[in-house]
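Is this the right way to post structure tokens for a design question? Let me know if I should format differently. Anyway, here goes:
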């Protein structure tokens, strides 16, 4: 949604109309899931994707045919291969797309675009509601206040990550980016940060060596913090939803960090190192009173087993593991509202 918001603001600044295309229903196997979006302008795709291939080409063409006024449209696509009018994409399922025109002259569209961009930039929870027929566009903030339109806290109750259709509208949460606390700023960390930020994680780098705690080494990181590993929580406000990646320059630092962190519960803790080093650290952790159950929650050796050897390959394996854990957490949450409203 971040790229879509940026593209929409650019369109509006240039006085150009656009159309927001949203998958509001997905059945069976399909290239993308419910809640996926793309933004289309007069010259074609501007940002996002609803699956590529023929379905996307058809949707882009349909978006170009819509008149520039606030009236939405729904189109269903059969991907089973059984419909004579199918698109030749035999995925086994189907999708329904909602087309929401976004006229540049409409003040509500401009207001929503500005507020949406702020929410995404500041990683604030919120919800957007799209009318199924009237092209309406409403926005609710993280405190349950309607920023535009008449959307309420009750409207977003039990809306999951993929959104939900109800009462003639489709309601979708503004996606929050999961935060990764990356302890260590060495060669693997420098390769890992751009990979993580490229798949929508926010990254804070925590390093106890001044020469490695430099922002120019991590241009895509949200924050680079010089810390004392013995007092990590004094420097960073740790949250239970955080992913914590430990790849320091010595097993003593790994131990110091784990001894603190394993006394609480976090979304993910991964530690880089050999099995021999891990065993030695675990022995010290046990002596410090850390339970075996807590140690077993740690992903170590870190990363998905792909035979990674170079810093770049290890970075990809670690990012893959973080993606898998994030996806599993979302699946477990199911349709529960991803906010505290």
């Amino acid at each position: 949604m971040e790229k879509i918001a940026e593209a929409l603001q650019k369109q509006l600044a240039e006085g150009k109309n656009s159309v927001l295309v949203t998958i509001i229903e997905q059945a069976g196997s399909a290239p993308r899931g419910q809640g996926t979006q793309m933004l289309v302008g007069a010259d074609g795709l501007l940002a996002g994707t609803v699956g590529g291939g023929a379905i996307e080409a058809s949707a882009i063409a349909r978006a170009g045919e819509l008149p520039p006024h606030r009236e939405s449209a729904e189109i269903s696509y059969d991907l089973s291969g059984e419909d004579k009018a199918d698109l030749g994409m035999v995925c086994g399922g189907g999708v329904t797309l909602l087309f929401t025109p976004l006229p540049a002259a409409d003040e509500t569209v401009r207001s929503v675009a500005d507020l949406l961009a702020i929410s995404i930039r500041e990683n604030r929870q919120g919800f957007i509601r799209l009318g199924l027929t009237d092209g309406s566009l409403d926005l609710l903030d993280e405190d349950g206040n309607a920023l535009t339109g008449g959307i309420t806290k009750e409207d977003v109750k039990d809306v999951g990550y993929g959104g939900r259709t109800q009462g003639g509208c489709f309601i979708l949460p503004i996606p929050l980016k999961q935060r990764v606390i990356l302890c260590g700023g060495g060669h693997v960390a420098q390769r890992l940060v751009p990979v993580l930020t490229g798949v929508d994680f926010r990254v804070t780098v925590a390093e106890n060596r001044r020469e490695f705690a430099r922002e120019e080494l991590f241009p895509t990181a949200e924050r680079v913090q010089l810390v004392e590993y013995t007092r990590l929580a004094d420097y960073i406000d740790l949250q239970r939803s955080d992913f914590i990646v430990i790849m320091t320059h010595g097993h003593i630092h790994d131990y110091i960090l784990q001894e603190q962190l394993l006394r609480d519960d976090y979304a993910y803790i991964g530690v880089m190192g050999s099995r021999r080093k891990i065993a030695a650290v675990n022995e010290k952790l046990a002596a410090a009173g850390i339970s075996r159950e807590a140690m077993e929650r740690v992903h170590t050796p870190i990363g998905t087993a792909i035979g990674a050897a170079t810093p770049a390959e290890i970075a990809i394996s670690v990012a893959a593991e973080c993606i898998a854990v994030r996806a599993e957490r979302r699946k477990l949450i199911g349709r529960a509202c991803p906010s505290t409203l």
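Format looks fine. Someone answered above. Worth noting: Confidence is low (pLDDT under 50) at residues 334-341. The first strand starts at residue 18 and ends at 27.
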